[in-house]
Amino acid sequence: MADPEGGTARAVLEFKNRQLAGQLETRRRETEDAERRLSRATGRGERYERVVGVVTNEWNSARAAIEALCARVGVRESAKASTEDASGGAGHGDAFIARLLKSAGETLVGVDGGAGGKRKRGDDDDAVKETVEELEDGASTFDDEEREALVRSLRDKADETKARLAAVIDVIDGKFANDVDAEAKKRIDALEASRMKLKRDYDALSHAYLRDSGKVKELQGELDELEVQLAVTRRRLAIAKANGGDDTGETIEGLPKMATAEDARAAGAQIEAKAAAGDKGGADTPGRPGTPAGAQVSSTELTKLKGDVAELEAKVKHNEKTINDLTKEKTDMAIKLRALGDGQNFGRSVETSPAYVALNARYESLKIENEKLNEDLRSMRRRMDGFMQESIRDRQAAERGEAAIKRLSSADARADELDARLTHVVKARDELEVRVRALSEKQDTSAAKEEQIKMLDIVQKENKVLKDENTRFKESYALFDQAKIDKAAAEARVKSLEQSATEKKTSKAADLEKEITALKEKLAAAEATAATANAALEEKQAEVMAFVEEIEAISGAYDEAQEQSNRLLGRIAKSEEAQNKAVSEKLVAQSAAKKFEDECERISETAAYYKRDLENAYARTQELEGQLAEATEAFTKMQQETSSNAEVTDRSKAQLSAMEKQIVDVRAKLNSSEQTVATLMQRSERELASLEAEKAARVKAESTAQALKKKCERLVREGGATDLQAVKSLLWYRIAINILFLHVKHANDAV
């Protein structure tokens, strides 16, 4: 009968789950909308930063050139104030335009009047604001005050620069007002040309740096990955040496020499000879039941495979040595290339140089060859592990067959013993029945009655012993049937293993020969490629040395790049602190989920324990019912045969009442256990449902946090040239991560 309270609770729980699902969906949509808005705002901020960066770079380059010119012609810091005083002092005027108009013989007022009046500073600010808004395409991540302060600082720098340039023109006009000779003009032209050339060189270096910095970072990442792979390969080779010795002819102290192909073939021949001699000399000796055939062949194949693995490891070691040399050379080239890339002058020429292209191609080809050889070595090891596992399974099957045979033998002996005991008990029971029948005919004497009582006790004891023996015999017979089934399964397994071993022997031997031949060919090709690469590398060493002088000339730019790297590392450390905090929260959630899973497992074990107790109680009930039936039959028979024995009848009735009471108690316990099991099953289902919901929320939070982490890392990598944007993007994503964790925590609390 269904529990109405449980149904109501389940309905309420389902209704709450639906409400929570709707709330979680709403939170998810809000989070997605916030991410989209954040992405749009980040894009607008990036565009604004690019515009500001371009304007700032241009003004900085122009100011640097003008300051150099001022220093050369002797203009002081007070030139700005004097120029502003010369411009008329009325309002805010442009000193450079006033100076040009003065040189042309006109006045600033006349030009303003002819052009419709001078443009006010407020109008200029409005125009700048409109231009900035057009570039931003909508809202910006900056406040109005920050934007105005930035525009104001740029305008102040422009005014100062124009004033200094006007002062330069005044100085030049003052020096050459009367008579400007040709030599002075040539010098001015040379200075102007030099300034323009320096500006072009600076712009070229800036563009080259921005272009090559990403490529240099990628090359650095690839070199780091290669170093990690080489470290892993060296560690694996060290483990292989520790397990089997060295393959160069020298042995490690305390370890045997590593097997080679010749040693493997010799060992296989010796094993085959021993196997043939054993078959010839011991042909009359029967094999042990359940032992798989062809064990010698499996060991031979394993020995051959070990030899092949040793050869492959030697080849891999040789290739790794070659790769280490090439990696060292490429590292030197990469260092030089990084210095050239930081200098941003000869990056393209180095990348397109024949030495670099040839070395890079040679390195990539050798890396591919080494990966192929490593993959072949791993496949050979996997196959050898498969052979060893099959051998272990065969040996385990043989052991199970032997155990089954032993169980069969013990079961046969036990059956014989039970048959003998049963015969003895039946014979004793027949004798007792004859004596009871004889005594029942002599009921006139008291001695006969006492003898009858004793005989009845003996009959009851013998019946009890017979029942116990019958129960044990049934159990032994069940074990005997199970042993027969195990024996048949073991024999079928042995036959299938023998057949599979025979089939695999032929196919795997041919495949191994083909693979070994192919690997040898690949190794020869790799060695030829390595020799060619070494020869070409020696030829190109002279070309590499030519770049050393150029590298030293641009070492100053490398220091600036190091400072930028330090700033980025500081930002990365801050972002890693936030990520570590997220990871710690993730670990706390995982530990809570683990505790919840352990609690569910404990409840499941408790339910299983009660279930087993219920089954045992049910079996005990059936056994007691059988005993009750047997006791009832014995009691009826005793009433028919010994009606005059009242004490025996009372004792039997007492035993019958006790048995009935015990059966009632067992049935009550059985009902209680059934109710307990049902309650525990319902509780386990509810807790499993809540666990699944918590797991889904945790997985979603982890995936979202991982995605945000990747975005942060990408922004940090891309933020080398725009430091301000990287910091602001990290702040926005940190806020988004905190909001997301708050939503997930709220959802977990609700669940």
UniProtKB/TrEMBL annotation:
Annotated localization: Nucleus
GO CC term, one of those recorded: HULC complex
Record EC number: 2.3.2.27
Keywords of the record: Chromatin regulator, Coiled coil, Metal-binding, Nucleus, Transferase, Ubl conjugation pathway, Zinc, Zinc-finger
InterPro entries in the cross-refs: E3_ubiquit_lig_Bre1
Record-level GO BP terms: chromatin organization; protein ubiquitination
PANTHER family: E3 UBIQUITIN-PROTEIN LIGASE BRE1, RING FINGER PROTEIN-RELATED
Protein name as annotated: E3 ubiquitin protein ligase
Organism: Ostreococcus tauri
